[in-house]
Amino acid sequence: MSSPTYSTYPWDTQSWIPEEGSKTKTTCQEDLIHADEAYISALPGLKCDFTFQSPCEDDRRCSSKPCTQSTESYRLKESSEPVQVSRARGVKLAKRIHRDSLVFSTMTASARLNQSAVKLEVLAKSLPGGNCVFDPRGRLRFEGNLSRKRRAMSNMMSMFIKVPSKGVKRMINVSVFSNGMMSISGAKNYEELLYVVDKAIMRIRNAFTQDRLGRRSYAVSAPDRLDLGILESADENGIRIEMGKLDFDLGISIKLESAFQFLVRDFNVTYEPEFFAGLKIKSALNPFITIVIYSSGKGYMTCSSRAMLASKDASAELRRAYDAVCSVLWSNKAEVVNLAYSKRIFKS
Which end of the chain is more exposed for a tag (fewer CB within 10 A), N or C? Predict the structure, then answer.
């Protein structure tokens, strides 16, 4: 038999899983209520931790075995001294400060160049292997979608930067606009943001085209002085985190209809199974945090508050919102937990 999947919680489930061939037709609610104290203390209540995708050694989710490296701490280790992330062709970049920030499953960030005019056509032609998406007329449609919303934009170019990762090749998308704005999506932590931003600046610096007479036309007017500029609500590095997403796994199956009845008393909950398969939960105290839970017990959190993501108390705010939802589920565990499905998850 295959080994049980524990997520990050190796709980002893034999005390409440009904035996094979049991005569009872119920989903063993009494077994859950009369579970031993050791199992009760191990259920995902206020002690439940997030399951992060990084910085695992193989850069994958730790869903098959406990991973102390990914759940050891919410925050990256703080660096006491400024460090320079990347160097290329001897060109110096401004020093980046390594912030004490959350480790996300994925995040979206923005930055602004200190030069407001970028020649996207020159940049697209100079990238190696055409590693970009750019259509100056805005007529390029993405495969499988003919709507106007999914067309390429004439004032934006998307380039893809490979991040150093062990065992897995990952590409992060960087959208560069003609007015000097940049949008980065797909980074998992703040250090990856620093790496991608510096790589993008180096590519723009070295982008040029040459005519028959040997005259060069660069993507920016002063490539030697190109760096990040001033952006509203940005941090000390000039980077503004727009949204962060964190994954979690409760380790048990949830009856969404029952959970909706209990959560709707304290939260703004949306449950429309014909349109979306999960519960969307928003706290009245912090409307910028959204929690989504699926029937399998897995889910994710998103935070769309720039000020909150930039603050030092971001992890505490996210944790309080997560614990509040878990406490309601734990208080009504007899009606919320789907033991019939949880048996298939945990029993080998």
Answer: N
Please count the residues of the chain.
Answer: 348
Q: Which domain holds residue 38?
A: 29-48+250-346
Tally of CB atoms within 10 A around 155 = 13
pTM: 0.61
- How many CB atoms are located within 10 Å of the residue 24 CB? 10
Structure tokens belonging to residue 222: 């002063």
Q: Of 211, 241, 271, at which residue does a domain stop?
A: 241
**Together in a domain, 266 and 229:** no
pLDDT digits (tens, 9 = 90+) for 301-313: 888 877 677 666 7
Measured between alpha carbons, how far apart are the two ends of the chain, in Å?
6
State how far the Cα of 159 lies from the Cα of 177, in Å rounded to an integer: 11
- The verdict on 172 and 193 lying in the same domain is yes
Alpha-carbon gap, residue 296 to 253, rounded angstroms: 5
Burial letters 156-176, b for 16+ CB under 10 A, else e: bbbbebebeeeeeeeebbbbb
How far apart (Å, rounded) are the C-alpha atoms in residues 283 and 111? 29
Across 132-234, the runs of DSSP E, i.e. the strands, are: 132-133, 156-163, 170-177, 181-187, 208-210, 216-218
Final residue before a domain boundary, out of 218, 241, 264: 241
Task: Write the pLDDT tens digit of every residue in 303-344.
Answer: 887 767 766 677 788 888 888 888 898 888 888 888 766 544
